[in-house]
Design brief:
The protein contains nine helices and 17 strands. By secondary structure, it is α+β, with helices and mostly antiparallel strands. The chain folds into two domains: 262 residues, Aminopeptidase; 90 residues, Elongation Factor Tu (Ef-tu), domain 3 (Beta Barrel). Strand 6 and strand 7 form a beta hairpin.
Length: 376
């Protein structure tokens, strides 16, 4: 159902000679980010991801709802999950007015504040239909009547004048709309685009698989590179696949907030920087011995890292794995990101490299059958 769309900007493919990411990887990243894969409709992006990772794995599985798992050493009894989530926020068509305007519901944490004047792709059985979030011109608004965007007043305009005309385009209640925006490299320093939360995670775990394959590492346990669906609506994909894999441990990667930009509160969100390395999390869902292993790995390999406190939950797929199957030793390695759930999400290239390195080195340092319990 979801049509694919991407462009070829040579600037976005400029390779950093010191990076672990190569040109083929960057080509894949651009195509992967530009492709639409909203919650519940992730299959086109999942196919791209599987096609990329296929040369670096032994086999794969796909579950009923579209989570894809690339497996190394599937016969091993000790199972290690390396996980990210594949879905992006979007909108559902909810109501079409008699005069052809479209009102929406969120699919995930879509931000109504950024919607006005954005272009969208509406995904239908007939293909992509273009539309825009309309908004009254500034000339027609007064301070006394100034309205802020809300789910009650944002709407799509597809250039139609009747509901019937909209429906003839193939648009109906339940169609999904995504913002139209594309990947780019900003100042040769930041990857930027929509859906970096968290397809950049899928990219990073695929790069770990590539490094293991190309370096001919023979790890004595099974590694399950897991690209989960439906994280944005409650960690549902991870919840399902955790029960299917029944892993012994899980390293999850997701994004967290860079707090150095204006209007961000360090008191509320911590003091985290793009460009200063991966972020390790403390919290009940994080198994402390596994966390200690990751920190020691970072220190041994001189990989910079930062710390954050997650309180009662991490809000990521870490929680789904940790509390599955009578308890799975789980840890979270986050990538600092600016402007989450917008069309201009930004992550630092060096942080991406260092997340990849940290996961890779942490895997290499795991002993087969390692027991993470405190008391034995």
């Amino acid at each position: 159902m979801m049509a694919k769309k991407h462009t070829h900007d040579s600037k976005s493919k400029k390779e950093n000679k010191h990076s672990v990411v190569n040109k083929r990887s960057l080509d894949f990243l651009e195509k992967y980010i530009n492709n639409a894969a909203p919650t519940g409709f992730e299959s086109p992006g999942q196919q791209l991801w599987l096609d990329y990772i296929r040369p670096y794995i032994d086999t794969h599985i796909v579950d009923t709802y579209g989570t894809v798992v690339g497996i190394l050493n599937p016969s091993a009894t000790y199972k290690v999950v390396v996980e990210a989530h594949a879905d992006e926020i979007s909108w559902f068509v909810h109501y079409i007015t008699a005069d052809g305007f479209i009102y929406l519901r969120r699919n995930g944490g879509s931000d109504h504040m950024i919607a006005p004047s954005k272009r969208v792709n509406i995904h239908t059985e007939k293909g992509i239909i273009k539309g825009v979030f309309g908004w009254p011109a500034i000339h027609t608004r007064t301070s006394e009547k100034e309205e802020t965007p809300s789910m009650k007043n944002i709407f799509l305009d597809v250039g139609c004048v009747t509901k019937e005309e909209v429906e003839k385009l193939g648009i109906h209640v339940g169609c999904v709309a995504t913002f139209e925006d594309e990947f780019m490299l900003l100042n040769n320093r930041y990857y930027m685009g929509r859906a970096l939360d968290n397809r950049i995670g899928g990219f990073m775990i695929a790069e770990v698989a590539r490094m293991i394959c190309e370096n001919k590492d023979k790890l004595p346990f099974g590694i399950y590179f897991t690209n989960s669906v439906q994280e944005e609506i409650g960690l549902r994909g991870a919840e399902m696949i955790a029960h299917r894999i029944q892993p012994d441990m899980a390293i999850v990667t997701d994004v967290c907030h860079d707090t150095q930009t204006p209007m961000m509160s360090k008191v509320v969100n911590g003091d985290l920087h793009c460009g200063k390395g991966p972020v390790v999390s403390y919290g009940p869902a994080v198994q402390n011995n596994l966390l200690k292993h990751i920190i020691q790995t970072a220190e041994k390999n001189k990989i910079p890292f930062q710390r954050q406190a997650a309180s009662r939950s991490t809000g990521t797929d870490t929680d789904a794995f940790a509390y599955s199957n009578a308890g799975v030793a789980s840890a979270l390695i986050s990538l600092p990101l600016r402007y989450m759930h917008t069309t201009v999400e930004m992550v630092h290239r060096e942080d991406v490299d260092n997340v990849i390195k940290l996961i890779y080195q942490s895997l290499k340092a795991i002993k087969n059958g390692q027991d993470w319990r405190y008391i034995k």
